[in-house]
Amino acid sequence: MRNNMINLSSAKQMKKILCESNPMCYGSSAALLSIIEYINMDIYCLINGITKEILSNNPKITQYIEVDNKSPEQVQKAIENLEFELVLVVSNTSNLALYKRMNKTVIFLHIHFFYANIKRTFLSYVDHLFIQQFWDLSPVNHPYTQVAPIIQFPTKINNPIEKICLVNLGGGESRFIKPGENSGYGELVVTIIGRLVHVFRDYRVVIAGGKKIIESIKDCAMQFGFEAQTFCNSEYLKFLSKSSILITAPGLNAVFEGLYAKIPIIFLPPQNYSQLIQLNKYEKAGLAISGLNFDLGKFNSDSLTEESLTKLFLLELQRLASTDELIQNVIQTVEKQMQYIQTEKFLDACETARNFLGNPKNKTISQFINQYYA
Known about the structure:
Blueprint: E1 16-21, H1 26-36, E2 42-47, H2 50-55, E3 63-66, H3 72-79, E4 86-90, H4 96-101, E5 105-110, E6 128-132, E7 145-147, E8 163-168, H5 185-195, E9 203-208, H6 211-223, E10 227-229, H7 233-241, E11 245-248, H8 253-260, E12 265-267, H9 273-284, H10 306-321, H11 324-340, H12 344-357, H13 364-372
Parallel strand pairs: 1-2, 1-4, 2-3, 4-5, 5-6, 6-7, 8-9, 8-11, 9-10, 11-12
Helix pairs in contact: 5-6, 5-11
């Protein structure tokens, strides 16, 4: 009789990869999730902040390590007894020097390489660099592979039963932005959509965002009959796929997801300095119309730290939120966008953008990892 039992001790063990992303950036955490879905390795993941919200309970992840991954000292302590062969990092440069001292192979995805003031010192710690496609990428003297937007691809579902207007706020927080404390962005958005209730009277309005920003607006949203909730990534994509309109902060992934699902996109004002830059790019690409953004000239990014830029930006946001005339200008611009998304010009701009950005179904990074390291 043939022995069909497998000798587990002799079976080939899967190799191990450590993954992390910027803990306060929804786009980088969502991109990381999209990559690890197709990696054939045991996956250890550092989680904190927004990353914890997005990646928790994912069956692909072997082990979660909850740690402040903006602190190399805390990360070093958290992983000192962990065995792994390589590291995948999305847009968090804090621990690259640590990984290099540990003689680990570092694969790095940069999703913000269009910033004018990018510091390039981190490149010396990176073995394989991937840069996500966007408008006006900065030049780089380092070997790299350019990749299309790293997103999980939603498919538009026609929903004849109800019309849904999905309002996306993103994660809403960062190291220096605390919803309901030093930022009233969520309340500003509810005010804007609330004053347009006559435009969206036939829609079910659902506001999505990170836990803290949703907590800061729930009561206010209910007064207008809006729903406000935090979705995991798969739930959000399912909801997006049956939405008629996406109203979104000018981040990255939410815009990409709406763009590729061919759902009409209406932009909101930026909620941080990064989104100020991104909205400027979307305007130039014809995806957004002008009238929402702040003056880029007020922000001398070359001489200011991230914290100083954020403080300056929050002052501008506060000025907008406290000036009825400025709020009314934003409301009028949102109404104009409602008309704009029905034009051939908008549809052509979307098609041009999709062609320029590339095919998000390409699994370039996960295929690279599986081919050379798994």
